């Protein structure tokens, strides 16, 4: 076989290999960019969900921090009964020591 013919076949084979490798590189680059975009979108969605959950938790925490409305004074009611109700609320953790003391002072007229 003449040498010129072998070189032509070799050059063609090398050319085909380069085209195939270039195509594979381009395709894999496109796939990587697409996957990266999807991952970024998913990460953004997770962050938004976490932020929404955090905001909801903050609102719940703020609502829980607000003191409950004072117990209404019963018209002509017994002071001892009112104090017992306040003590139960304090034991349940609904009233703080300060709130209990303030309501107790109101009931006793101090």
Characterise the protein shown here:
This protein is mainly α. The protein has 2 domains: 66 residues; 43 residues, no CATH class. The protein has 3 helices and no strands. Helix 2 packs antiparallel against helix 3. It is rod-shaped and about 110 Å long.
Summarize the structure.
The protein is built from three helices and no strands. The protein has about 110 residues and is mainly α. Helix 2 packs antiparallel against helix 3.
Quote the distance from N terminus to C terminus.
120 Å
Mean pLDDT across every amino acid position: 76
Sheet/helix structural class: mainly alpha
Q: Gyration radius, to the nearest Å? A: 39 Å
Describe the biggest sheet?
none
How many DSSP H or I helices? Answer: 3
Extended strand count: 0
Number of domains: 2
Proportion in helices: over 70%
Shape: rod-shaped
SSE pattern, N- to C-terminal: HHH
Low-confidence spans: none
Strand percentage: under 5%
Oligomer: single chain
């Amino acid at each position: 076989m003449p040498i010129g013919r072998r070189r032509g076949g070799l050059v063609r084979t090398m050319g085909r290999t380069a085209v195939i490798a270039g195509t594979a590189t381009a395709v894999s680059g496109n796939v990587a960019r697409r996957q990266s975009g999807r991952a970024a979108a998913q990460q953004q969605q997770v962050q938004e969900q976490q932020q929404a959950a955090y905001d909801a938790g903050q609102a719940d925490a703020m609502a829980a921090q607000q003191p409950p409305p004072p117990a209404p004074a019963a018209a002509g009611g017994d002071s001892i009964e009112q104090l017992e109700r306040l003590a139960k609320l304090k034991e349940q953790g609904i009233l703080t020591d300060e709130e209990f003391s303030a309501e107790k002072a109101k009931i006793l007229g101090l």
